Amino acid sequence: MLKASTRTAALYDRVRRVIPPIEWPVFADDIDAILELKRQRNAVILAHNYQTPEIFHCVADIVGDSLALARKAMAVEADVIVLAGVHFMAETAKLLNPKKTVLIPDLKAGCSLADSITAADVRLLRQRYPGVPVVTYVNTSVEVKAESDICCTSSNAKILVESLGVARVIMLPDEYLAQNIAAQTDVEIIAWKGHCEVHERFTPADIRQLREDHPGVTVLAHPECPPDVVVEADFSGSTAAMSDYVGSQKPPRVVLMTECSMSDNIAVEHPDVEFIRPCNLCPHMKRITLANIHLALEQNRHEVRIEPEIAARARLAVERMLAV
Ligand code: 13P
Ligand code: SF4
């Protein structure tokens, strides 16, 4: 019988630029077991771009930004979906494909944006601004989505805000995303005070220092960064848009003002691009590991269940987004 590290050798070849050889034996057993469990359970793994490379490149079947994961979750035919990402992503997958078993390997994989607002807050905002539509970022709980008119992601926020044909919208809960979109549209945007704990830490001074230390570097910033950071960057877009930018523009040197694992994951595909890595980790994304994906598949944990009445209303908001 071959050892797990031998059976997974071809996978290691893919990630050898970002995972030192000494670490591979630690991952190989779990990878080997996960691949077998996926076959046995007819399961697929959806992984967000912020997952670590051993998950992203070695066990995931579908990878992408929040929008791509939502779209692709809807079309999954397998019996089981394991969401290697955070809780709201697993809820969105369950909303869009309710007959499937959707598993999140760690229930504490949350999000500072999702935690910043409750359904009661949205009801109060509606009272304060009667008739103003509520556009809600997917980084929210299913209860908050259920109180919303339509959802958006960082990929489609501007298009969605403008698609409503109104002069004013409430956009929740990311204040910086709302301000960054407001800078690109004539629609008036009423924002909430939520922030992403990863992106709020970047500053314009960081970018100026990076440009000084690494001449010629191209700076890409996620729109969850503060507006003064986005203004200072060369390009701003969702995680998928940043990845596409590197693929199409092939900048010789690049820095991604976003979560750490993004650079590792893209670097695997672009050996000719130099990645400068000012690292901000998302502690929630990092709760997902090979070990708990293995357990999730083995013990069917933790299954996402949504109260049907809430699900019906939240699904409407997500489906309206996908229809635009
Ligand atoms: P996108 O992948 O949609 O750009 O979102 C980034 C993010 O922070 C998700 O939690
Ligand atoms: Fe939430 Fe920010 Fe982490 Fe994304 S990176 S899951 S927005 S805390």
TrEMBL record:
It is found in: Cytoplasm. GO terms for molecular function: 4 iron, 4 sulfur cluster binding; metal ion binding; quinolinate synthetase A activity. [4Fe-4S] cluster binds at C111, C196, C282. InterPro entries: NadA, NadA_sf, Quinolinate_synth_type2. It is an enzyme of class 2 (transferase). GO terms for biological process: 'de novo' NAD+ biosynthetic process from L-aspartate. Coiled coil: none annotated. Its EC number is 2.5.1.72. The keyword 4Fe-4S applies. Binds 1 [4Fe-4S] cluster per subunit. Iminosuccinate binds at H48, S66, Y137, V138, N139, S154, H222, P223, E224, T239. The keyword Iron-sulfur applies. Gene3D superfamilies: NadA-like. Keywords: 4Fe-4S, Cytoplasm, Iron, Iron-sulfur, Metal-binding, Pyridine nucleotide biosynthesis, Transferase. One of its GO terms (cellular component) is cytosol. Its cofactor is [4Fe-4S] cluster. It comes from the Bacteria. It catalyses: iminosuccinate + dihydroxyacetone phosphate = quinolinate + phosphate + 2 H2O + H(+). Pathway: Cofactor biosynthesis; NAD(+) biosynthesis; quinolinate from iminoaspartate: step 1/1. Catalyzes the condensation of iminoaspartate with dihydroxyacetone phosphate to form quinolinate. Belongs to the quinolinate synthase family. Type 2 subfamily. HAMAP family: NadA_type2. This is Quinolinate synthase. It comes from Mesorhizobium tianshanense. The lineage of its organism: Bacteria, Pseudomonadati, Pseudomonadota, Alphaproteobacteria, Hyphomicrobiales. The gene is nadA.
